[in-house]
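Pasting as-is:
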Amino acid sequence: MASDYVLGTHQSELERLHFQHALWLPISQAAWTRAGLRAGQRLLDLGAGPGFAAADLAACVGPSGRVLGLELSGDYVAEAQELAQRGGLAQLEFRQHDLLKDPWPDEPFDLAWCRWLAMFLPDLEPLLTGLEQCLPAGSQVLFHEYVHWDTFALHPGAEAVARFGQACQQSFRAAGGDPDVNRKLPSLLAARGWQIEELLPLPVLGRQGSMAAQWMERFVAVYGLQLQRLGLWSAADQAETLAQIQAAASDPGSFWVGPTVLELRARRLGA
């Protein structure tokens, strides 16, 4: 699969995303509950990927609601459309869309869901302007974006894993993004008149064998190859990192910590 995504859209990345969705689903569902998600609402999923979260959102709003997923990758849109068809989710639609260039939908939504999208954008202005176009007064936007990528680590003392995390951040910045974008999004929204209703850190950590540990190990395995293609990592670096992961498996006290996500929920106020 061809893509401009720094993470790629190849089959191994698609499989990783499916596992990632399973890990994060309870966290996401709790966030949607805090946002008051209910049947009949109209939702916008920004950066919908292969549609896993959008399908769950469509089940939440039911046949009387609507979910529109906007996604840059044509490959992922095709995957998502097949997912919606298999699930019989007539209330779920996907469109290929460049948030930085294409016109935003000319319809109102009750909630916009945005996870791990803003961190990849070289310019946040089109995102913030688009949200104002699609979310009338009283509507909400819900972001799950990283706020502290430096927490990514395998403890105790896996130095190569720490270097891998730094290389990841370097790749995101080289592509024009900001791995810790949620450090500035609350202020940007507040300056535009949004009311900040939730700021909640969402750390993920786990011992060997846990879903959290498997998620991070899969990321190292898949993205390590991409970093090599980008010239930011070497085969020797990858081998050293995998060796440290294997060594940690024999330590019952070792554990992984992921990059810290911040839940940001804001409400559009009236004029």
